[in-house]
Amino acid sequence: MGLLRRLFGKDAEGLRFPEPPVPRSRGFAEAPAGLTPPSDGSASPAPAAEAAWPRAPAEVQFPSTGPHGHRARLRDKLLTRGPDALADYELLEMLLFFAMPKGDTKPLAKALINRFGSFAEVLAAPTKVLLETRGLGPHSVAALKLVQAAALRLARAQAAEKPLLSNWAQLIDYLTAACAREPVEQFRILFLDPKNRLIADEVQGRGTVNHTPVYPREVVRRALELHATALILVHNHPSGDTTPSRADIEMTQEIKEAAGLLGIVVHDHVIIGRAGWTSLRQKGLL
After folding, report:
1. Is the confidence at residue 33, as pLDDT, over 70?
2. What domains, with CATH codes, occur in the chain?
């Protein structure tokens, strides 16, 4: 909750919200447009294609009736026992509190984890996909993306506290969080100063599921603009297999040669996947 308080500027405790002017589906404060319940009080039918929308308790894999005082109990559990005492779905339902000030968010939180696979996968899901997920709306998606952005910036700041080459474990943690779950390849560059401290971390290009175009002259030009003296190249493999391809190896050599002519060192090229990573330097390929 301390992190969420810093992100959103206020705690859930003490907030007062006016009663909604119209009926709401199953108590969620945020519902997709066009889902206003019919005047006879019967529930609007949910499209069969949307698996994440909470249905009647008997149909939901994780039913919940949302007992009175549940939010306060979760908050107290977090503050007294710490975040490790909370299950992933509890963290997610607490996060949804901020976008949905009334109603039971547990069914939606569990449905989202069921659909995307994990708490981390929910946060990392593309914005467009989240906005198209029934039960979510702009406020809740913004909350999810804000937490993801905060986590990435915290990880990047921790990795950059020391020279990157001596802070390798935290660097890998940051890169994994930043790009391991990307659905397409992205090529990014870490630009370093003479003491191997981070100057900038930039995504230079995005491609398809298995290819990203990279131009060595653009990499070197940007390094000169930033007065960088060293680089760490990074890209992800959406397939999860971090084995470097022949194209990966050849592209790395081209950048190394072009940068070397201007005194810029390429320290490594790291390939990130969901289940691990590969260093071309450690493989003797750089």
Report:
1. no
2. 2-152 (no CATH), 164-279 (3.40.140.10)
